[in-house]
Design brief:
Order of helices and strands: HEEEEEEEEHHHHEE
Number of strands: 10
CATH architecture of the largest domain: Alpha-Beta Barrel
CATH topology of the largest domain: N-terminal domain of MutM-like DNA repair proteins
CATH class of the largest domain: Alpha Beta
Number of helices: 5
Structural class: alpha+beta
Low-confidence stretches: 262-271
Strand content: 15-25%
Length: 271
Amino acid sequence: MPEGDTLRRTADGLAPFLVGRQVSAARVRPGGPQVQRVVGATIDAVEAQGKNLLIRFDNGLELRTHLRMNGSWHRYRPGERWRRPPSRARLVLEVPGAVAVCFDAPVVELFDARAAAIHPTLSRLGPDLLDDAWGPDQAEEARRRLRDPARSAATVSEALLDQRALAGIGNIWRNETLFAERVNPFAHLADLDDATLDRLVARAHELLTRSVATPGRVPMGVYRRAGRPCRRCGTLIRSAPLATGIPRTTYWCPACQPGRGGDDGGDRRPL
C-alpha cells in the first residue's frame, strides 16, 4: 500500500499540471460519484493527507482517492497512449494540456469541502507526518493519540499503522522506524515510556521526509530482509505476520530489538 511519502510525491507531481486549470472533462466508472459536477471548475489544489490524495475545486467540491494496495495516478499528454488498459481507470480528469488518470483505486469519492470536518475518514486522521507545518504541537498530539486508552493493549506495530494516531506511515516505514530506534515491534504501548514514543514519532517523520526528498535512496535496515544479516550487528533478520486480521509482515533484528516476540518462531529464511 502506498505510504504518505508516495502520496506526497504523487500530489507534487500532479499539481503543476492541474492546479489553476479548468476541468474540461471528467469521468468515472458506472456507479461512481457524479464527477461531471467538477467540469468547468478550476482546480485549486492537489494535496496528500496521510494516505489520501485530495483534489480541491473552486466550486467548493473535493475529490478523494485512496489507492490501497494496487491504485496509482498517472499523468499523460492529450492523445498520449496510456500505460494501463482504459478498463482499469477509476477516475479521469482532463484539463488543458494534461490528462490525469487514477487506475485501480478502490476509493474515489466526491464531497462538499465544507463537510471535510465531519468526513468519516478525514476528520479522524491523526497528525500528518508530512504536514509542512509539522512541529512540536503535532508531535505532542501524535503522542497523545498513541496514549489513548483504547490503544493501551495494542502493540507498537499496530499503533503506528493506525492512521487515527498519526497519518502517513505504512508497513515499510513502520518497520524501519522501529529498527532505527531499537524498539521491539511486539512491545505493547503500555510498556513504552513517553520518551520512546516521542523518538518513534520523530524518526517516522524524519524517514518519510527523507523519502520524499530522495525517493528510493533511504537504505532499508530490515524491510524485506528476512534471513539476511543485520547491517548493524550481523544477526539474521526475522519476519512474522503482524497480527491476526492485519495483512502486514513485521521484520526485525532480535539482537538490536530485543524483547517480546524475539523467540516467537518468526521466519529466518531468505526471501
